[in-house]
Each structure stands twice: as C-alpha cells, then as structure tokens.
Design a protein that fits this description.
With 114 residues, the chain is mostly helical. The protein has 5 helices and no strands. α1 packs antiparallel against α4 and α4 packs antiparallel against α5.
C-alpha cells in the first residue's frame, strides 16, 4: 500500500508541476515549441507541429513523463543499496522512455493525418 502512495504522490507532483509551468502558461507553451522534446518528436517521428495541437501534446507528454518518473521511483524504493538503485533506475528509465515516447509519437502521427 505504501508503494501505491509513493507512485500516486510522485505522479501527481510531477504532472502538476509540468502542467502549471508548461501547459497552462502561454510562455511555457512558447518555450515548449522551441524546446528539445518537441524537436525530438519532430525529427524522430516526422511530426508536423503545425498539424497537431501543441497544448494537448504538451499535456500528453507531461502525463507520460510523470508516469515514467513515478514508475521508476516506485520500483527503486524496493531496493536498499544506493548503487543498485542507480543501476536499476537507469535500466528502467531507458526502456520506459523509449517505449512510451514511441507510443506517443505513433499516436500523434496518426492524429496528424486526420
């Protein structure tokens, strides 16, 4: 039960922070449009930024990033050794980022065509 609270707490903290700083503010959206994350999706999945709603994409990315971080934090809380925590966090983070960003890129590529 403790791990559920860790996951939910971490998820809400990360998501709300990202939402308040990036998604909700006009300056945040403008910075997001010029940022590295959007450039990554543009190059990796050939997204046409003009055809998608950038605010919805930023919100989806906030949700995805919060899930990735919360999942990683929850799993490494099971481990006692600091060095092992770092190793496991790296092993978990890389595949999670690749998988979730791949799914997000494909979903928005399909939305772009509609």
């Amino acid at each position: 039960m403790e791990f559920i609270f860790i996951f939910v707490g971490c998820f809400l903290f990360i998501y709300l922070f990202y939402y308040l700083v990036i998604v909700r503010r006009e300056k945040g959206i403008e910075a997001f449009k010029n940022g590295k994350q959007l450039l990554f999706f543009k190059n990796a999945y050939n997204l046409d930024i003009d055809k998608i709603d950038v605010k919805k994409f930023a919100n989806s990315l906030a949700f995805a990033n919060a899930f990735i971080i919360a999942t990683t934090v929850t799993i490494i809380e099971l481990i006692d050794s600091f060095m092992l925590k770092l190793l496991v966090a790296f092993v978990i983070l890389v595949p999670l980022i690749l998988i979730i960003y791949y799914i997000l890129g494909k979903v928005y590529k399909k939305k772009e065509g509609k």
